[in-house]
Amino acid sequence: MKKITILALHLGYGGVEKAIVTLANSLDDTKKYKIEIVSVYRLYDKPVFKINDTIKVTYLLPSKLSPNRKEWGEALHNLKLISLGKESLKALKILYKRRKSMIDYIKNSDSDVIISTRVFLNELLSDYGRDDTLKIGWEHNHYHNDMKYATDVIRSAKNLDYFVLVSKSLQKFYKNKMKNYKCKCIYIPNTIENVPKTKSPLTGEHLISVGRLSPEKGYLDLLIIFLELKNKKCKWHLDIVGDGSERSKLETFIKEKRLEKDVTLHGFKNSEEIEKLMKKASIYVMTSYTESFGIVLLEAMSNGLPCLAFDSAEGAREVITSGYDGYLIKHRNFKAMEKKILDLTKDIDTRKELGKNGRRKVKNYTSDKICEVWEKLIERK
């Protein structure tokens, strides 16, 4: 039985972390492999996303050696020089331990296949992985015209055996850039864990959006758009699911604009709770500036929701077929987004047609189908 190890930065909140857990569970469910997840940091007592009991989870650093970016930033902002010095030394210690512990693990690993999920992990796997180990990089982020980041990615992955990209556009880009290296670029999309047996009736007057509350997700833009909808006498409610650094800013906006009764910030919810909220909703709205792959759009489609997104989110362009299962709004045009949402709130027949088409599409992204693609890659060597 082959042993497969997936290297992770942490097992907390995040799209990459959810993808790692979903893949690990899917491979484990085949009963063909021995699966281990190796996480650098232990941010919580247990992983945020549920992991099969038969999967081994290894943490390289104790919980006390967690990233201290927040503490370092506060010391710098408040000009507390002694604290800044202490936090800087702590940061250097953590980075040293992070690198050393991962190098030691990779050097001594008996895994047949190792999958890395970050740029620095690609580098360490390339440099210290055994020759008889199948070394696979797995890139979840879009370079979004940041050529420095793209160059770092290429440099980190060029000596791996395979490099998995979650979108066709990313595969095309990196395949062209890496054509002179031994590493082969493979397209494997992310997967949804399941397609619910039931779907939203699309009668509830709720908009919903799910994701990390961080600047690139554009949730402040969503609130600005929603405020205009309320000014146009739209009576629908907005549900935002997720947590993150922007939460206090969003709460301030909601309070200042007196939207407390119209917007609910639910915080982090598990898959079952999200599914319940989606079944109460009738439209899914994404306002991200960038997305590598719109997994949450597939989850919304699996619940029968029509999806709207700005086309600046590259992953949305991979998932949404405009006019078929949702709409892509060009150039981050707020007025166009407002109009399309308003039109859909008044047209249940169109909502149902888009939702039906979305449910049909997501069958191509189920975990069993995508797991088969991963198995073929794993068995190549």
From TrEMBL:
Listed InterPro entries: Glyco_trans_1 (IPR001296)
Molecular functions per Gene Ontology: glycosyltransferase activity
One Pfam match: Glycos_transf_1
Residue span, Glycosyl transferase family domain: 194-360
UniProt-listed PANTHER family: GLYCOSYLTRANSFERASE
Name of this chain's protein: Glycosyltransferase
Organism: Candidatus Onthousia faecipullorum
